[in-house]
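Design request, tokens follow.
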């Protein structure tokens, strides 16, 4: 019953995520086109850098959209997990593009510092205002989903940094218009780029940990072993693996030595207790136990294969 409910919720939620992403893609294509034209006409590097960032947003949003669609596909004999990791992979790719774009922007900003250009600030001001409105709307569309899903968070961060970049470009445009401080264009580009590195690295690290099957930071493996070993029937817990398939599924796998040569029905009853313990205390929702009695072999928590 609970599994059916969860599946229905994820299916409808996936459709909503897909719709919001599709709207954001359309909005960002519009703003990117406008900013490229405006940046070339005005000569503003910060506007062109914002356009480049918006372009990577379009790519990242498309990647996120495809991942969301794939994640909803059913498992098969050849794809026993389905495409549940597609969204984590999308988050990793999007985080990497944030950092790559940031490095390119830093390089261009340094070059422009050495050779400042006179910039048509009026175009910069109006297009940055348009960027704030469009990206602000996209941020609102994705905010709720970003709190629950790494893929959506990567898309959300692209859009949030774009909105902040547009605010910075607007401030720069006003300073250039009223005070003719043209070097501020390069300075703002540098600030935008450094911020991209900061948010991109954090997301890159999180998605990398999931892809590498590292144990989640909020899952204390030693504490889990201690709790399971407190059960009267359990003698030893060893050969433990804990990993995330995606943000919704945390898996626990272990070998358990029992004090007695128990029957299969007794093992099933103990397994239910272990599953409930791991779910309610550690939020682990997939458990795979190999029962053992008097079997020789290494009994370490982590066995080096």
């Amino acid at each position: 019953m609970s599994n059916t409910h969860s599946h229905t919720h994820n299916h409808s939620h996936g459709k909503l995520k897909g719709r919001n992403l599709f709207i954001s893609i359309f909005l960002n294509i519009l703003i990117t086109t406008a900013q490229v034209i405006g940046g070339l006409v005005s000569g503003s590097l910060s506007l062109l850098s914002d356009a480049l960032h918006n372009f990577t947003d379009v790519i990242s949003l498309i990647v996120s959209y495809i991942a969301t669609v794939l994640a909803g596909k059913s498992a098969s004999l050849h794809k026993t997990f389905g495409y549940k990791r597609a969204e984590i992979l999308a988050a990793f790719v999007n985080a990497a593009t944030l950092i790559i774009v940031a490095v390119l922007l830093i390089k261009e900003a340094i070059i422009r510092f050495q050779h400042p250009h006179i910039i048509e600030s009026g175009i910069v001001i109006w297009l940055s205002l348009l960027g704030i409105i469009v990206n602000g709307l996209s941020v609102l569309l994705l905010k709720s989903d970003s709190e629950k899903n790494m893929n959506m968070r990567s898309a959300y961060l692209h859009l949030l940094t774009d909105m902040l970049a547009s605010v910075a470009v607007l401030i720069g445009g006003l300073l250039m218009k009223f005070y003719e401080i043209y070097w501020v264009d390069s300075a703002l580009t540098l600030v935008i780029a450094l911020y991209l590195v900061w948010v991109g690295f954090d997301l890159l690290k999180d998605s990398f940990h999931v892809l590498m099957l590292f144990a989640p930071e909020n899952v204390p493996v030693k504490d889990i072993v201690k709790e399971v070993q407190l059960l009267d029937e359990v003698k030893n817990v060893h050969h433990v693996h804990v990993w995330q398939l995606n943000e919704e599924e945390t898996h626990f796998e272990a070998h358990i030595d029992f004090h007695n040569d128990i029957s299969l029905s007794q093992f099933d009853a103990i397994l239910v207790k272990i599953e409930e313990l791991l779910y309610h205390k550690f939020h682990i929702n997939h458990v795979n136990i190999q029962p053992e009695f008097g079997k020789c072999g290494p009994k370490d928590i982590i066995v080096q294969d």
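Comment from the thread starter after seeing the answer: thanks! Confidence is low (pLDDT under 50) at residues 1-12.
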